[in-house]
Amino acid sequence: MSPKTLYDKIWDAHLVHEAEDGTSLLYIDRHLVHEVTSPQAFEGLRMAGRKVRKPENTIAVPDHNVPTTPDRLEGIKNEESRIQVEALDKNARDFGIHYYPVNDIRQGIVHIVGPEQGWTLPGMTVVCGDSHTATHGAFGALAHGIGTSEVEHVLATQTLIQTKSKNMKVEITGQLRPGVTAKDITLSVIGRTGTAGGTGYVIEYCGEAIRGLSMEGRMTVCNMAIEGGARAGLIAPDEKTFEYIKGRPHAPKGAQWEAAMAWWQTLYSDDDAHWDKVVTLKGEDIAPVVTWGTSPEDVLPITDVVPAPEDFTGGKVDAARRALEYMGLKPGQKLSDIEIDTVFIGSCTNGRIEDLRAAAAIVKGKKIKDGLRAMVVPGSGLVRAQAEEEGLADIFKEAGFEWRLAGCSMCLAMNPDQLSPGERCAATSNRNFEGRQGRGGRTHLMSPAMAAAAAVTGRLTDVREMM
Amino acid sequence: MEKFKTLTGVAAPMPLINVDTDMIIPKQFLKTIKRSGLGKNLFDEMRYDDDGNERPDFVLNKPQYRDAEILVAGENFGCGSSREHAPWAIKDFGIRCVIAPSFADIFFNNCFKNGILPIALPQDKVDILMKDAEKGSNARMVVDLENQTVTTSDGETIAFEVDQFKKHCLLEGLDDIGLTLEKASAIDTFEASAATSRPWV
Ligand code: SF4
What we know:
The complex is a heterodimer of chains A (467) and B (201).
Chain A: H1 6-13, E1 15-18, E2 24-27, E3 30-33, H2 39-48, E4 58-60, H3 79-95, E5 98-99, H4 110-116, E6 125-128, E7 142-145, H5 148-157, E8 159-162, E9 166-173, H6 182-193, E10 201-206, H7 208-211, H8 215-223, E11 232-234, H9 239-245, H10 254-264, E12 277-282, E13 289-291, E14 299-301, H11 315-327, E15 342-345, H12 347-350, H13 353-363, E16 373-376, H14 381-389, H15 392-399, E17 402-403, E18 424-427, E19 442-445, H16 448-457
Parallel strand pairs in A: 3-4, 3-6, 4-5, 6-7, 9-10, 9-12, 10-11, 15-16, 15-18, 16-17, 18-19
Antiparallel strand pairs in A: 1-2, 2-8, 13-14
Helix pairs in contact in A: 2-5, 6-8, 13-15, 13-16
Chain B: E1 6-14, H1 21-24, H2 44-47, E2 70-73, H3 85-93, E3 97-100, H4 105-112, E4 117-120, H5 123-133, E5 140-144, E6 149-151, E7 157-159, H6 164-172, H7 176-181, H8 184-197
Parallel strand pairs in B: 1-2, 2-3, 3-4
Antiparallel strand pairs in B: 1-5, 5-6, 6-7
Bound molecules: iron/sulfur cluster.
Protein name (chain B): 3-isopropylmalate dehydratase small subunit
GO biological process, one term (chain B): L-leucine biosynthetic process
Pfam family, one (chain B): Aconitase_C
């Protein structure tokens, strides 16, 4: 048998049909659904008189639109948001799919809930009408975002029409230095390859530094594969993966567990598998980074200065000029001199327990800078409960952070958590696009520890100075 | 789905790279539970000022491009989120074809599901089309999907590649759920065998 990559193996195990033109029908094991990209798909099913083919493998949770203040349990005030969440309530009921409503402690960001509940397992195909579905690749699952038409397609057929991507290996060798996290890895990779560098590829992350990461850290890395343009990001499962999954509500048990393990242990890229592209970074070379512009590729070590448009070539010269104007920054300015107004810790990139621990470790016993607005939005109700049990919530509250309920919140600002024009935010989310966190808002992406450090000093800060 | 065969229309030049889906349709418009009506908010934050007035210098606000049916843009068009609201807004505005050096994966797929043809061409070819688009409303391009060509207003013809299955679906206006359901027995067979090989799923 010819050597295969992990992607090849998962692909082959899910191939329902392959046409002569290379178009394939791929079977989908798990379909995650949220309120924003699904109403039109369910409507389409109704109009065509179709059912959900596998309701038992379809999981829905509202997250994008939900307020994160405690009063949300009395009802969502914004009418359009409320209608969208109510539509999901009704669709989940009518079509008989698994559902975690707003008042369920298991509710949270769809990409945090899936793994937490044991829905996401190695070797699976996982889709969701959301680009950050790549997150689930941390388990060695082939996971990617789809549009609403494809959501409808998967609901109706449990398959997706696909053409195979190319294989890209991203290897992070050696060890990370103190203060450097999974977020710094994933941003640094995008800084190297660009936001289109992964277009047409599925990335497999490997190497000692990746192996050294926890499951939470691996999810952070895979989460941003899409920001590098890739269809999906993957990490081969290992003992840490199995350990994380074991005992989760929807993980296999008993004999099923043994059978699953036998297959999961074959899920790795063969030694002599073919790679269409290979990118290697040394773990030691990665620094704590921040973004300065309006694309995730606009990333630099915190010790650096704001670049000039002339530092770039091609279309990037104009893009950088536009970004600097939007961000209100001058070339040559030290990144660590940039003052911020707001700190947002949360999102499917960095809203897990480990992220909150890392941030709490920095702010413990300190106060946030006077006048700053800072919030922590746990990724799920269960993360929130655990953080309260571990005393992290108290650390945040004593430091001056708002302690919110679970949801996407200011990651995309569809709920009331938004930036105002010109407001500058240190954020642990994944996109710094113009207007992403609110019209005219200015976003700097970074790790939870870096965001916590910025909250204390009121400016972008090298977390290593506070360790 | 609406068929796409040939299109003759005005092309709007938008020489910006990394045009993301938040630019195409900002999140406040994703709260709809419908597919229609998004055209007026296409490129909302670039098109209107804070008071909701049109910015006269934005390309689609210029008289010569208000009825554009083709958009010529920079690399990595449509990057960012999976929101199909982006192609819905483009289509609702009246644009049926986007030409750029490269596209983000999900956006690219979403276009085909909505009767929009995304065409990826090498930068030098896009440059030729961008120049042509800059001539304004007198310069109409012709996009011919059957023959896979774009013809400029001066008659210069540029060939493009397209996935044959996607081409077929666009030309015929086919709904791919219907096509897939024709393979229902293959799906049944797959599920039966997966039930023994991966029973935990
Ligand atoms: S947290 Fe942000 S990136 Fe993640 S699913 Fe929600 S909106 Fe999307």
